[in-house]
Amino acid sequence: MRAPAHIRTATAADAGTLAMMLARLGDELGEPPATTEATIRTHGFGPGARFSCLVAEAAAPMGFALYFPHFSTTRGAPGAYVQDIWTAPEARGQGLGARLLAAVAAAARRDWGAAYLALGVHGHNAEAARLYARLGFAAEEVQPMALTGAGFTALAGEAMA
Description:
By secondary structure, this protein is an alpha+beta fold. It has a single domain (6-160), classed as 3-Layer(aba) Sandwich (Aminopeptidase). The protein has five helices and five strands. Strands 1-2-3-4-5 form a five-stranded mixed beta sheet, with helices on both faces. Strand 3 and strand 4 form a beta hairpin. Helix 1 (15-29) crosses helix 2 (37-44). The relative contact order is 0.14.
């Protein structure tokens, strides 16, 4: 049975709700997010938006998917990277996660000609990994790495020298 949720594009008015859902996701992953309502509003909406977001709701918010344009030189095509996807515990097992991903794929194809979706899954999130595999996602040989904080600041400063 499908979750009785309507999926729509998020607006700036949803920034508080998105921050709340990100906090719930962070609690589940044991990684509290640094993202706040203000950062969501600043970076997610307006002419310089850095991401897009879909919200699933019924009587209350039930989930979201936050994504942005991605480009693969090996695929030779634009795609969408799903940074975060979350569904409320009471909505799980009803197909809402798959519906959110399908909505991201459709929006990204429409908005910038995306030909694929990419995402990462936390190693301890077996339920999500099973969903992604069921939908046809496959693990790749790429090891994600990140440069943050002082290391990022130092490297960015070298480019300015």
